Amino acid sequence: MRTGPVDVFVVEGSADAGWVQQVTHAIPIVTSRAGDLVEVGLATSLARPGGNVTGVQTLQPQLAAKHLSLLKEAIPRLSRAGLLTPAPGRGATPGRGAAPAFRCEAEAGAKALGIALQSRTIRSADEFEAAFAAFRAERVSAVVVMRNRLLSTHTKTLVDIALKHKLPPISDAPILARQGGLMSYGFDVREAQRSAADIVDKILRGAKASEIPVQQATKFQLLINLKTAKALGLTIPQALLQRADQVIE
């Protein structure tokens, strides 16, 4: 990777920021949808990152419990749910990063809701079929999917396999609901990108990345695919439909 002449790198997540930081600790790196930058060691604190990485983080791990709560509201009989997360990338620190934090939040949320949680970790799209077949064998009724590059790239394949096994999925990625998943609940992408652009503007005007606070996503959207719900024989409560930012019919 060439690093000059470059004033600032703009990346999506914390993994991308980590890869770029392996090349340079001098050029500012701005994220547009990172996980917990402090948790993965890319920032000292949210108020004062201290290094060359700052930007927007989207509270993805904290959404795991919310996803389970939404599934329980949509499917009151839900007693067993699946959790699909990506395997850690090469060089990742064991036990740290978005996926372990996501699982931890999901486990706590499942316990509070009285839901048994079955977890599967995948490394490639070729493992979708085996993962959902295992969920089905474990009598899971719905699946929480943690978004990452692998799952985002193969969303349609994932949704098709999930629905073949009659296991409605939920994620923080709107594309999952739009391509046939049951629901999505996550940050507003456009708002996050605008916030990242504001940070880039500050850096180009002379501000130091180390002193620009990491911004938290504040606007979230709920999408419900009513067509998918009907195909699976699910009746979504009217109260939940009324809270949706978009209902796909």
Tell me what you see in this structure.
The chain is α/β, with parallel strands linked by helices and 249 residues long. It has 2 domains: 9-59 and 188-219, Rossmann fold (3-Layer(aba) Sandwich), CATH 3.40.50; 63-186 and 221-248, Response regulator (Rossmann fold, 3-Layer(aba) Sandwich). The protein has 10 helices and 11 strands. The protein has helices at 14-21, 63-74, 98-113, 128-137, 149-153, 155-164, 174-178, 189-204, 226-231, 238-243; strands spanning 9-11, 29-34, 53-57, 80-86, 116-122, 142-145, 169-171, 183-187, 215-216, 220-225, 246-248. The chain has a 7-stranded mixed beta sheet with strand order 5-4-6-7-8-10-11, with helices on both faces. The chain has a 4-stranded parallel beta sheet with strand order 1-2-3-9. α1 links the parallel β1 and β2. α2 runs parallel beside α3 (98-113).
The helix/strand series, from N terminus to C terminus, equals EHEEHEHEHEHHEHEHEEHHE
Mean pLDDT reading: 91
Portion of residues in helices?
Answer: 25-40%
CATH topology of the largest domain, anyone? Rossmann fold
pLDDT under 50 segments (min length 5)?
90-96
